[in-house]
């Protein structure tokens, strides 16, 4: 198998780093269902608006979300529909880990 160039893996790592926070995963999960304003996401995450805005900036910088303005309101949505496949993959890893841990405990 031919290896891809280093910049390809660096780009993947940027996306993975953007997702590497529980609040950002929660935000992405919610944005897959529908568009949300920052105020709704602030309530969902249970953090102040500036913290949620920083999380959204990280996700937007990685190309995972996009925004639109409506007056003073900013609405966010997921940019790609493939996240549901990613969540399924994560769930499978979690289940396999649980099986391995259960087997190790006897």
CATH topology of the domain at 6-79: Arc Repressor Mutant, subunit A
**CATH top-level class of the domain at 6-79:** Mainly Alpha
Helices and strands, in order, run as HHEHHEEH
Order of the strands making up the biggest sheet:
1-3-2
Question: Stretches where pLDDT falls below 50 for ≥5 residues?
Answer: none
Q: State the helicity in percent bands.
A: 55-70%
> Using DSSP, what is the number of strands?
3
Cα-atom Rg, whole angstroms? Answer: 17 Å
Shape: globular
Residue-averaged pLDDT: 93
Structural class: alpha+beta
Strand proportion: 5-15%
Q: Give the full name of the CATH homologous superfamily of the domain at 6-79.
A: Winged helix-like DNA-binding domain superfamily/Winged helix DNA-binding domain
How many helical stretches?
5
Strand count, sense and barrel status of the largest sheet are: 3 strands, antiparallel
What is the CA-CA span between the terminal residues?
Answer: 39 Å
Reported CATH architecture of the domain at 6-79: Orthogonal Bundle
Textual characterization of the structure:
By secondary structure, this protein is an alpha+beta fold. The chain has a domain of 74 residues: Arc Repressor Mutant, subunit A (Orthogonal Bundle). The protein is built from five helices and three strands, in the order ααβααββα. A hairpin with a 2-residue loop joins β2 and β3. α2 crosses α4. The chain is globular, with a radius of gyration of 17 Å. 14% of the residues are buried. The model has no long low-confidence stretch (mean pLDDT 93).
């Amino acid at each position: 198998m031919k290896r891809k160039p280093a910049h390809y893996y660096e780009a993947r790592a940027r996306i993975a780093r953007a997702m590497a926070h529980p609040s950002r995963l929660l935000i992405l999960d919610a944005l897959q269902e529908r568009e949300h304003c920052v105020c709704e996401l602030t309530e969902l995450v249970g953090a102040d608006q500036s913290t949620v805005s920083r999380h959204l900036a990280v996700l937007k910088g990685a190309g995972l979300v996009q925004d639109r303005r409506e007056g003073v309101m900013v609405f966010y949505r997921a940019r790609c529909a493939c996240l549901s496949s990613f969540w399924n993959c994560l769930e499978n890893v979690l289940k396999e880990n649980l099986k391995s841990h259960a087997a190790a405990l006897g």
